[in-house]
């Protein structure tokens, strides 16, 4: 945890950005409740989960700790209710229908669910995300909903991309966010950067890095899990 915080700090000042400009999301998929409790004791507050069932189980088990929970995996419509009821953020919005269900199912006693649109900057090479030229239309639709609030954009680049390609992807996402802000959307979040590329993402303007392996170590292989 400290090593990752150090990497973020170094990258942030190397980029001439303010201390604290980049938030750390600890990706705790496949990790135990005790692993998360230990990270929380070390000062970590925001955790990311990819699988609904697993995430909700942990959220309930750790309810007393006042942690912030981010859903970052693929989301199908039959799972939106649990996400709307338990999570604080969803980074992986790809369709209006999903955002609409989340908005309808968000309990009114809770703060709006904070959303990011997942963008497919890499074109064919990445399977998920919205095409860049479709993002403004989706953002417009999401802005009509209550119960959710659009905060920014998220990207998962191709796993095998070279550093120069990663830098291009991250810069393209940042430019897309700036273009949307110029159009009047109030976006403050760029969810980009993982264990192997956080420095490149921070240099390109990331505001939230999603880090699993570099905090918790290598993930155990899970049958049927996505090779992320
Ligand atoms: C697993 C995962 C991460 C963390 O990846 P690491 O390489 O372990 O840091 C980040 N984002 C998403 C969407 C993930 O699924």
What does this structure look like?
By secondary structure, this protein is α/β, with parallel strands linked by helices. The chain has helices at residues 2-14, 33-41, 52-61, 80-86, 96-105, 135-143, 163-182, 198-203, 213-216; strands at 23-27, 46-49, 68-71, 89-93, 113-118, 148-154, 189-191, 208-211. An eight-stranded parallel sheet has the order 7-6-5-4-3-2-1-8. α2 (33-41) links the parallel β1 (23-27) and β2. The chain is globular. The mean pLDDT is 95. Residues 27, 29, 50, 72, 156, 194-196, 210-214, 228 line the site of pyridoxal-5'-phosphate (PLP).
Bound ligands = pyridoxal-5'-phosphate
Strand order of the largest sheet: 7-6-5-4-3-2-1-8
Report the radius of gyration as a whole number of Å.
17 Å
Counting DSSP E segments of at least 2 residues, the number of strands comes to 8
> How much helix is in the residues?
25-40%
Strand content bin = 15-25%
Mean pLDDT reading: 95
Shape: globular
User: What's the helix-strand series?
Assistant: HEHEHEHEHEHEHEHEH
Largest sheet: 8 strands, parallel
* Unreliable residue stretches: none
Q: Number of helical runs? A: 9
